[in-house]
Amino acid sequence: MKMLKIFKLTFGVITLTACSQTMQSAEKHSHWGYTGHESPEHWAALSPKFAICSEGKSQSPVNIVNTIDGKLAPIKIDYRPSQVEIVNNGHTIQVDFKEPTNLMQLNGNTYTLKQFHFHVPSENQIKGKSFPLEAHFVHADQAGNLAVLGVLYTLSSENQRLAPIWNNMPQKAGETFKLESAFDPAKLIPKKRDYYRFSGSLTTPPCSEGVNWLVLKQYDNISQSQVDAFSALMHGHNNRPVQPINARVIVE
Fold first, then answer.
1. Which family does it belong to (predicted)?
2. Is residue 42 flagged as an active site residue?
């Protein structure tokens, strides 16, 4: 570890319960989106609850450019086939887990996988490079602190591991679909798990900060037809632009 001997990296916390309640309350009173007057640059003006979207100093996503070397703890994934529900919430396709059976261990702390969802194109960037798709695996520990694992995708052949999701995406906002067969989220996590770590926020309103972000260095693949199918369903892109790094440090 080079610079970390004299620099201690700390991350804020945000509880999952408070986050969910805030988002539900905000959505009841304010519509937001990715185009027009509801687009990301206007989120803070849509509701007082969204003020941190413009006032926050640790907002996500980011362009990962300048990093420091650190002995990051390995990510330990203990996912298993599970019953899931696919949700079209009008902003993305989200896959919800009803049972706390999928775990991620990091620095001696255990996080439970709550859901994963997608953005086209990617929200996080690597040295200015955007990717056609990004998946966010959202975890929470027993105290409700959030950790998001990001997986970036490059264009290649069709991703058969995503087929059970892509083939059953609800076509209208508010619709859900419960897969009959158990789905194994472990198949969506690359084998090599070197990563970047930084403190950030939710990438959608209310943009709450204190989220632990882990972005994997190894990419997965996606076909252009799969990207196009998702974009058509979402009526365009559903990514927030990168936000200023400010005083944060990105560790790898």
1. Belongs to the alpha-carbonic anhydrase family.
2. no
| Cα–Cα dist 52/22, whole Å | 13
CB 184 within 8 A of CB 81: yes
Buried/exposed code over 58-71 (b: 16+ C-beta within 10 A; e: otherwise): bbbbbbbeeeeebe
Residue 120 three-state SS: coil
Identity of the amino acid at 24: Q
Structure tokens at 116: 């994963």
Sequence-ordered list of residues with C-beta below 8 angstroms from that of 235, at least 6 positions apart, any chain: none
| Type of residue numbered 162 | L
What phi and psi values does residue 165 have, to the nearest 5 degrees? Answer: -80, -50
Antiparallel, parallel or unpaired: β 146-155 and 125-126: unpaired
Put simply, whether the predicted model's pTM sits higher than 0.85 gets the answer yes
Comparing 10-14, 29-33, 124-128, 194-198, the range with the smallest average pLDDT is 10-14
Active site residue: 37, 42, 91, 136, which one? 91
CB distance 60 to 200 below 8 Å = yes
